[in-house]
Fold this sequence. Notes:
The protein is an alpha/beta fold. 37% of the residues lie in helices and 17% in strands. It contains 8 helices and 9 strands. The chain has helices spanning 17-24, 36-45, 49-62, 73-82, 105-115, 136-145, 156-159, 195-203, and strands at 2-5, 12-13, 68-69, 86-92, 130-133, 150-153, 169-173, 182-184, 189-192. The strands form 2 sheets. Strands 5-4-1-6-7-9-8 form a 7-stranded mixed β-sheet. Strands 2-3 form a two-stranded antiparallel sheet. Helix 1 (17-24) packs across helix 3 (49-62) and helix 3 crosses helix 5 (105-115). It is globular and about 50 Å long. The relative contact order is 0.16. The model has no long low-confidence stretch (mean pLDDT 92).
Amino acid sequence: MRIGIDFDNTIACYDGVFYAAALQRELIAPDLPRDKNSVRDFLNGSGQADAFTELQGYVYGARMDLAAPYSGVVDFVRAARAAGHAVFIVSHKTRHPMMGPRYDLHAAARGFLAGHGLVGPGGLLPDENACFELTKEEKLARAVQLQVDVFIDDLPEILGMPGWPDRVRRVLFDPDGRRPDGVWKADIFECYRTWASLRAAILGPAA
């Protein structure tokens, strides 16, 4: 089996990260809720939309150390590889932020993956198994080129794009519990809230 996995909000978890970065930059008060949407809404609503845009570049480019892998995702990749499956990380993001310093966002993401033992020397996957494309269309094309049998993403709009081969099993990772576990949206894709339930669904029960 060939398994494709998205990166942002699927492997990399940003819970509390935007809050911490915004607080460090004195953009928000400590009593603001810690989720990304609250930080975004506060900055946008207070005439600081550009500050939030630059904050995104700062987080994704310079402060990936504040992020962490979702619980269970490294174990999933390890178990998949041990069972003989091929695993690919396929993501889309711009190379540089839209505003602010020109961090290399692709290099920052690769650094995160290497730092957590997912790619690189001694990692679970070779470097070439991590693919960062510039657009969602290029992301889909890469997944198709890699002939994935399963693709896991946190964005329904990616899984619902035209162009996926019928044979590809599309799986939505939904850690916020916005949708029920199991098959969703007229059998177009499945939905799981944790990597443990996703692992059981794709790889079978743990030994």
